[in-house]
Design goal:
The protein is of the alpha+beta class. Helix content is 28%, strand content 43%. The chain contains 2 helices and 10 strands. Strand 1 and strand 2 (14-21) form a beta hairpin.
Length: 136
């Protein structure tokens, strides 16, 4: 039985992560979902949040946006609009983006604009949560 699985995270900018890992926890639509090697095949959606990668006895954290996840017993493939490692998140810039998004929500917006701003806000909050976890 394999003790690792291949995790690949693809964004519009290219491959954000491609490693053999022992476990990955991701933000599914039903809540946090842990994936170990030999997982049953599954296709699901991912919501903005945090991916925890367990590799070589350590946990690594990434902020992610919405996406699609394909899981087999040997790999996890994620297509997402955002994937940033915790150490690469610029907290000041992300906090400014969050504040801009919240200010826009106070304006009179169309339903489509509200959906777009809410999406931006969710991505900002995901990054802030991941980054601020690192301070503790």
């Amino acid at each position: 039985m394999a003790s690792t699985l291949k995790l690949e995270i693809i964004t519009p900018d290219g491959t954000a992560y491609a490693e053999d890992v022992e476990m990955v926890t991701l933000p599914g639509v039903e809540g946090q979902m842990g994936v170990f090697p030999q997982h049953v095949p599954l296709m699901t959606q991912m919501v903005p949040g945090e991916i925890i990668v367990h590799k070589d006895g350590r946990d690594y954290f990434l902020a992610v946006g919405e996406g699609l996840v394909e899981i087999t017993g040997a790999y996890v493939s994620i297509l997402t609009d955002l994937a940033i490692a915790a150490e690469k998140i610029d907290e000041v810039k992300v906090e400014e983006a969050r504040q801009r998004a919240e200010a826009r929500l106070r304006e009179k917006l169309s339903d489509e604009e509200v959906a777009s701003v809410n999406s931006s806000l969710a991505r900002s909050l995901a990054q802030l949560n991941v980054k601020r976890r690192q301070h503790h």
